[in-house]
Amino acid sequence: MESLSMQLVLPVTPRDLCKAWLNSAEHSGFTGSPASIVPHSGGVFTTWDGYISGKTLEIETPRRILQSWRTTEFPEGSPDSLLELLFEPEGLGTRLTLNHSNIPDGQKEMYEQGWQDYYFTPMKEYFKPRNK
Q: Which tens digit of pLDDT belongs to each residue from 35-51?
């Protein structure tokens, strides 16, 4: 099994970012793809048209979310991976730390690139300050 850790600073409060991750409409908004999320511990979720699925295991708003996580590309019989999201205040925004563990062997680089392309890059655009 493999693991990865990535960080991103966004101009949004930890509370708002934590809540957005667990909100179907906002998650869909910042990824650009439909998400269905039951926003409480034990709640299931799917994103990217069912490519990603899992269950929210723990929520400590506004500091931490722990989810079981898998894609349709996990080898048959593979256990779910674990996704831990940490939300820490930094300046006027939030440092998001994404710790993804228990990734099937040989898939780390693919998911690292996926987090960058399908989450971090569009989140920078979605959460950037707008001129009023």
A: 999 999 999 999 999 99
**Strand duo 2-10 + 93-103: pairing:** antiparallel
Per DSSP bridges, beta strands 2-10 and 35-37 are: unpaired
84: tokens are 């831990």
What are residue 58's phi and psi, to 5 degrees? -145, 145
d(CA 50, CA 114): 15
Domain architecture of the chain: domains with CATH = 2-126 (3.30.530.20)
Backbone phi, psi, residue 80, to 5°: -60, 150
The token duo for 128 is: 């950037």
**The overall pTM is greater than 0.90:** yes
Mean pLDDT for the stretch of residues 46-68: 97
pLDDT tens for 104-114 read 999 999 999 99
Q: Give the dihedral sign, CA 76/38/126/18.
A: negative
Residues 123 and 17 sit within 8 Å (Cβ to Cβ): no
